[in-house]
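Predict structure. Chain length: 114.
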Amino acid sequence: MPRSVNSVASRARRKKVMKHAKGYFGRRKNVWTIAKNAVDKAMQYSYRDRRAKKRNFRSLWITRINAGARQHGMSYSKFMGQLKANEIGLNRKVLADLAMNHPEAFKAIVEKVK
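Prediction complete.
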């Protein structure tokens, strides 16, 4: 019996990888073995960095809240502690936006927790 190879599925798999590699530089975009490695590595990075992005944004928000709180004579930790004590349920993303774009609203929150 002749050997049967599912070339339709193999070709589809290769096409999918080559489509992901479109736009890469040099042989990474058109040589199968190199493109496969490049796409595999890119997928690992994208998986990892979807989680890292959340950490990066949280630290950015904390930095912005700290800068805003210090303008009104409070540290970040004291400000957040007072927010919890006064049961003000604003998250860091909203507080950072207020500190950056609406300083008068942020000042009102700081005055409320002092």
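Summary: The mean pLDDT is 96.
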